[in-house]
Structures are given as C-alpha cells and as structure tokens.
Amino acid sequence: MVIFNEGNPDCVRTLLRPAERVIRQGRDILVESFDTRKELWERVLESYSRYLEGECGDFLNDVDTAFRAKFEAALAVLAWSFWRKGEEFSPASERFSEREIGLIDEILKYNVFEITTKEDILGKLYRRDEEVLQLLKTYYLGMDRWIEEQLEDPEIKLPLRYHLKRTWRRYREKIDAAINEASKYGWFRTLMEEWEREKAGEVEAVRETYETRVRELKRRMAEMVEFFEGERRKLEEELSTSNLAEIERLRREKEELIRKFEREKEELTKRLLELKDEELREKLEEELAKAREEALREAKLLEERIRRRELELKQKEMELRKREIEVSQRDEELRRKIEEVLAISGKVEKGSRLVVREEARIQELNFIGRVKSKFRDKISLLGKRYSVEDVEEKKGVDVSGFRGKLDETALWNLPENRYLEIRLKERKLLGRKERILIKAIYLTRVERLAELGMDTDPLTLAELNVHLVGARESPGGGRTVLVVASPLGFEERIRRYVSSEDFHRNFYSENVSLILLDTETGEVIHNPNDRYAGALAPLVSLELDEEVYAKVRECVREKLEGRDYLPLSECLECGDEEQVRRAFYELGREGHVVKYIDGFGLVLIRK
After folding, report:
1. Cα dihedral sign, 107-110-111-117
2. Other C-beta atoms within 10 Å of 26: how many?
3. Are the C-beta atoms of 545 and 578 separated by less than 8 Å?
C-alpha cells in the first residue's frame, strides 16, 4: 500500500525538526529567551513554507494534514509563549486570534499528562497532589465539554484543530481512566460530592456576576453613546475648528468596547458550561446572547453615527480646501490685474474712481436739490446783501437719444448733466448794483454711463476747460461763478491749476470764479485767493456726518494695514458704501493708489 504517494518522508522529517522541538517542550518553551523563540518561529515558518511549496513532494490527504498540523501547532505554541510573557511580536498576534491563543492556554495546562500514565495520575491522587486535583476538578466540572465545543469552532484553523483534537484525546483517555479507577474509593467519591456542592454554591454567584457584568457593559455602552452625542454636538458647534482626530478616537474606543464585551462573554460562557443545572445554564446563555445582540446593535448604530459625522467633516474639509483654492486663485488674479492696470494706465488717476449709473443719477438730483434750497430770496456775501432774482434748472444732455439702447428703467436712471443758473443782484439804494451769475453744473460722461453702466476715470483738465472757457465768454458783463460738481472727482492736474501752493499757477480771472465739488468725498476745491469762490464754497458744499465718516475711514485704514491691496467689497462692514468710497479716495490722495479692477471693483493699493 502506498502511504506517502511519492512524497519524501526524510525531507519532511528534516523540515519538521524545529516544529517537533517546540511541541515536545510544550509549556517549557517559556524558559527559552525571546530571541531563541523568535528564531524558532522564523525556522518553523520557513520550513512550513518550503513544505507547502512542495519541496518534499506530495502526500496523501491524511498524511499531509498531520504534517501541516504539526507546523501550525508549533507556531501556535510559540505565539502563546509571546502572549503569556506579555511580549510584543506582531507576526504571532496577526496570525493567531485571541480565541485560538485562549484554547492553547487551556489545553497546555494539561500538558502534565503528556508523559504520565494512568498509574502516575492515581499515585498523585493518593498523595493529594494539588496541581492534579485542581486539573481534575476543572475537567470534571465542565472543562472537557468546553474544549470539545471550541475544537468545533470553524474560526480556528483546521490543521490546528486537528492537532489539538488528537492531543486532547490522549489527555482525556488517561484522565477518564484515572477518574473511573479512583471512583471505586470512598474518599474520592466524597471529594467529587464536595466539588458538586461547591459548584451549587457558585450558581448564584455566577448569576450575580453575570448580571453585574451585563449591567456594567450596558452602562458603559450608554455612556459611550452619550459621550459621542456630546462630542457630536460640540463638533457641530465648532465645525470650523474641528478635525477628524476626534472621529478616529471615538471609533477606537467603540472597537475596544466591543472587544472587551467579547472577552467578558467568552469568560462567562466558560463558567456557564461548568454548571450542572441545564435549565439555569440555558437561561443564562440565552440572556447573555441577547445582551451581546443588544450591544452589537448599539455599536452598529454608534458606528453609523460616527461614519455620518466623519463624512460630514470630510465634506466640510473638502469645501474649505476648495474655498481656499478659490480664494488663492482669486487673490492671484486680482494681483495680476492690479499689475496690468498699473502698467497700462501710466498715471494713477486713470481708473481710480467708480460710479455706477443709478448712483450718478441720485447724486445729480441731490446736488441740484441742495444747491437750489440754499438760494431763496436773499443771501449775504463778502459783507454785501444780494437778492436772488432767478433760479433756473436746465438739462445739459438730452438722454432721449439713448431710448433705443436702454430700457425705460435704465433711461430714468441716466444722469442728464443738469445745471442751475442762479442770478444774484446786489441790494443797495444808490450806485451801480453788482450782478453775479452762479452756474452750478453736475458733470458726468453720460455716453459712457449709458453704454457701460459705470465710469471709473476722474474728470480731466480738458473736460473742465470746455466749461471754463464757456463761462469766461458768456455775455452779461457781471461776475460768473462756475461750480462744477462730479461724482468722479478730478484728476491731479486740475488741483495743481486751481489750489496748488504755487499761487501763480492757480486759475484766476477778473470776471470768473471756479469752485469744484467732489460729490463722493464732499471735498471742495477752489483758489484760496479768490474772494468770491471762498465766500460761495460753503453754500455749494455737501454736509456730511464727520464723526461717522471718521470711524469708517479708520476702519478702512486698519484693514489696509499689513496688506498690499484692499478691495472695497471687503470694507462694506465698515459703513455705508458711499462713505467707504470716500475713504478710499482720501487715502489714495495720501500716497496710495485707487483703481477699478474688472471683476473685483474698486481696489485700494498700497504704494
């Protein structure tokens, strides 16, 4: 009969030597050093691998199973030794489960019967050997049944179960024979009756222990859920600063709780199997199973909550990263456009203002209405009294020509460059009476506002000269005071020709006075040496709440600190947009640059 099916038994014997050494030593393997046991592990594992790869040929299934069982058993004993001595050795803990290690631990306690005969066991019983008596007591009260049930567990590796079954069968045969023989003696029967009474007294203790442990596990589970709910609420309240570390910690605690529950369950199960009261044992086992199901259900719910929260945090993290990228890209685009605008404009005035169509229109109506309200029946100027003979409001531009390009709403919001002609006559009884013509013009680029809906460039000197020349050449012979108001402000060159420190450059005419009004900032510009302009300036200026504006200006200044540029949109929390723009323009005159950047609006740039 072919036993080995062409396999080489001598080759197998050589490969099995380190494994058989470990098996022979059994519990005594603990006396070996960690390095020795680690080396044995590596040798056994290497030999096992060589055998599985067919180095020794092929064998019949039964023979092959017996060989593999020895390799697996040797590795299991070594893994048990690392566990028993509390040594960290990950290859062993990864290969064998806690259940497998626990089973090895129980069977190795009976390792003493490996070399003893029935007669040896009886001799130890007669001498009242404590170790043997304790092992027999544990065996008699249910250990045999527990080990048999564990050996049927499919989660334990098949070759390992094969070896442990054969080993336990040898031990059991010797123990059963010894107990049967000892039962013939009254003292041993009395001893077994004492064991039964002790076990009966332990029934209630087991029940109480079980109930206490189950209550503790339920309490721990409830605390865990409550803790998680508290953490979830805190995470929701502090979402902007939360991270995934808390989620991972909760998951680790939940897994540890389940592992502990399983360990408690295994321990209780072993103790329940020792009970002789079948009805009570079954009832307790049923309750334990229900407790386990409830714990697993709670753990599943907890895991689902953790998973949902983890997904929410990851989604939030992705959104924050996306927002950071968008802000970074927008910031880079703004920086690039600033550089392009500064390079193209060549001078800071171009593109340094912003007014939209409807704002230009309301400022026009505001300017005309305020100026008109200040010239009633009579006024006093330069120590003289004047009568207001006439106040006439006129349109500078006929906007009906844009009717085909704009809808009715846009057309009504388009400025018309309205102006007032106010005629004053000196009040006195004798002598020549002085006449003054005040022409107050609200000036915008109507065509650009109609086409683009906004304008970003201050009025130029060339645009101002058109109206200044017209005022000088107007008939009448009296003094003309030209007031030009604009929401766009005036380029720097105009200031140099109107109110500079070089007096010889400031505009002066014997019959024309010039006053400029920036309706956005409220600034009034005129020749400080022109008596008429100085006297009329307060009458055409716009009253502003300087305290409120001072706070807005300071807010804008603080936001600019430490930055190269500041979009107007980021300063709207400082106050009204009109006052923020005024602050931008004033800070621009103090050495910074104000530019309109397409897509970003008005931007204050540190120079």
Report:
1. negative
2. 17
3. no
Write the pLDDT tens digit of every residue in 371-420: 888 887 788 888 888 888 889 999 988 988 888 888 888 889 999 999 99
The reported pLDDT for the residue numbered 519 is 85
* Residue 306: pLDDT over 70: no
Question: Counting Cβ atoms within 10 Å, is residue 478 exposed (0-12), middle (13-18) or buried (19+)?
Answer: middle
Q: What is the DSSP letter of 571?
A: G
A 10 A CB-CB count for 25 gives: 17
Strand partners, 603: 567, 595
- The percent helix, strand, coil of the chain (3-state, each to 5) is 65, 10, 25
| 226: pLDDT strictly greater than 80 | no
DSSP string, 26-63: GGGGGGS-HHHHHHHHHHHHHHHHHHHTTTT----HHH
The CA–CA distances, whole Å, from 31 to 26, 65, 308 equal 11, 30, 51
CB 419 within 8 A of CB 482: no
Cβ-contact 125, 132 below 8 angstroms: yes
Residue with the two structure tokens 């300017």: 367
pLDDT tens digits, 467-477: 888 877 776 66
Strand order in the sheet with 512-518: 378-381, 384-394, 419-426, 435-442, 479-486, 512-518, 524-526
Residue 484 φ/ψ, nearest 5 degrees: -110, 115
* DSSP category for residue 487: T
Q: Is the pTM of this model over 0.85?
A: no
- Chain segment 30-62, per-residue pLDDT in tens: 999 999 999 999 999 999 999 999 899 888 888
What is the three-class DSSP state of 150?
helix
